[in-house]
Amino acid sequence: MPVYDFRCSDCRNRFEIFLTYAQYDQHRPLCPACASANVQRVIRKVRVTRGDEGRLSSLADDANLDALDSDPRALGRMMREMKNEVGADDLPAEFDEVVNRLEKGQSPAEIERDLPDLGEE
After folding, report:
1. Looking at the structure, do residues 14 and 66 belong to the same domain, yes or no?
2. Cα–chain-centroid distance for residue 74?
3. Same domain assignment for residues 37 and 58
4. CB proximity list for 51: less than 8 A, separation 6 or greater
């Protein structure tokens, strides 16, 4: 059964209702908090996913990979986009530190010199 989201225009309460497709047209929702019929349907955000391969290949198409060797800022932007695209929230904190430094223009060699223990457990 689909879930439909509503918001009460009177008390601003948000709530969900489970309805079949057939029930949706006949059902007149009431706010469970204040019993008002003055409610609006809220449309949820939709997220379309592609496989990891598709996401990474689209990033590679967008980036001039040869230029990344000479442009730390571009490398940092690409790494941040890859993290956001793949949804890798479980990366170590050092990842964000490295990306921040790259985006500020610090070269990978300088980062390695400043953070000699990077990547070690």
Report:
1. no
2. 20
3. no
4. none
For the stretch 9-57, pLDDT in tens is: 999 999 999 988 888 888 999 999 999 999 999 987 766 666 666 656 6
**Confidence class of residue 79 from pLDDT cuts 50, 70 and 90?**
confident
pTM for the model:
0.45
Same-domain check for residues 15 and 34? yes
- Tell me what the pLDDT averaged over the chain comes to: 81
Please, what is the angle between helix 72-86 and helix 52-62, to 10°?
160
Residue 42 CB neighbour total at 10 angstroms: 12
AA letter at 114: D
How many Cβ atoms are within 10 Å of 27's Cβ, its own excluded?
12
Contacting residues for 110 by C-beta, under 8 A, at least 6 apart: 101
Which CATH number belongs to the domain containing residue 10 in this structure? Answer: 2.20.28
User: How many domains would you assign to the chain?
Assistant: 2
Whole domain around residue 38: which residue ranges? Answer: 3-42
